[in-house]
From TrEMBL:
One of its GO terms (molecular function) is S-adenosylmethionine-dependent methyltransferase activity. One of its GO terms (biological process) is methylation. The keyword Nucleus does not apply. It comes from the Bacteria. Belongs to the methyltransferase superfamily. CDD domains: AdoMet_MTases (cd02440). PANTHER family: METHYLTRANSF_11 DOMAIN-CONTAINING PROTEIN, METHYLTRANSFERASE TYPE 11 DOMAIN-CONTAINING PROTEIN. This is Methyltransferase domain-containing protein. Keywords: Methyltransferase, Transferase. Gene3D superfamilies: Vaccinia Virus protein VP39. It comes from Paenibacillus dendrobii. Residues 50-148 form the Methyltransferase type domain. Pfam families: Methyltransf_11 (PF08241).
Length: 278
């Protein structure tokens, strides 16, 4: 792919091609706590919110009616196309006029200096080059603006057997890709535990901290299985035609079905948000 700014990796962008429907169906929307926490730091209704690496818009649409302008920024055409299709289907014509989606990169934002109140990265900052991304975020944020990177702790709660099987399955998928995928095609996933330190070390923010919270959602076996299948590593293994994990996937599904037993249950999604105040 030509035209990608330095610091961005083709494998990171293309990792999510072709499974936007699975991603959007099973992944959680960003919870209301995100709006409440970040708006409280701003001290008012945000003017412009930039949601970088927005994917299918699961973290963008929550700002409808809660910000004057919301821009979802996503370099992957398939994921952004899904977000745009969802926007067209929104019934509230006035509210949806405040939201738009554009192609772009985290370290090359087409916005003026000091023009945004909030910049968010939901489940996405670990795919970005942190030094150049944070420098660009600081440029675009106005004084007192907030940069926020927030992520789920996968998986959500279930039985210990289902959770253990989930973690092992995704770990084995990543191992297969490291061993068999061409190095130039591999995605680079940075350690989420380093996000706060990256914000602090950037020197661009006068205050930084981590905030933890949780959100309860309803879930059945189909959704819990879908959450695993929506993970990029497992999707890439399947796209490459590797069948090494078929038996492990079958065992994972069995653990999940045994836990849910045709029931819809409450599960807990745990979140970690790392913020920097410009």
């Amino acid at each position: 792919m030509s035209g990608i700014p330095a610091g961005n990796r083709h494998g990171n962008i293309e990792r999510f091609s072709g499974f936007e429907d699975t991603y959007d169906r099973y992944r959680p929307s960003a919870p209301r706590q995100v709006i409440d926490i970040l708006s409280s730091y701003i001290g008012r209704k945000p003017g412009r919110v930039l949601d970088i690496g927005c994917g299918t818009g699961l973290s963008t649409f929550i700002w409808m009616n809660h910000a004057e302008e919301v821009v979802g920024i996503e370099p992957n055409d398939d994921m952004r196309g899904k977000a745009e299709a969802k926007l067209r289907s929104q019934p509230d014509h006035d509210a949806k006029g405040s939201i738009r989606f554009i192609s772009g990169y985290s370290n090359q934002l087409d916005f003026k200096d000091g023009s945004a109140d909030l910049i968010t990265c939901s489940q996405s900052f670990h795919w970005m080059e942190p030094i150049s991304t944070l420098a660009e975020a600081a440029r675009v944020l106005q004084p007192g603006g907030v940069f926020a990177a927030y992520d789920c702790d996968w998986p959500p709660t279930a039985s210990w057997q289902a959770e253990k099987s989930y973690v092992e399955l995704l770990g084995h998928a990543d191992m297969l890709l490291r061993e068999r995928q061409e190095q130039q095609d591999q995605a680079i996933k940075r350690n989420k535990e380093s996000h706060l330190q990256s914000i602090i070390q950037s020197g661009k923010f006068r205050y930084a901290r981590e905030i933890v919270f949780h959100n309860q959602e309803l879930c059945d076996a189909d959704r819990y299985i879908g959450l695993a299948l929506s993970q990029g590593g497992l999707q890439t293994v399947m796209k490459l035609g590797m069948n090494d994990l078929e038996e492990e996937i079958r065992q994972f599904k069995a653990h999940v079905i045994e836990h849910f037993q045709d029931r819809t249950l409450e599960v807990l999604f745990s979140y970690r948000m790392r913020i920097g105040i410009k």
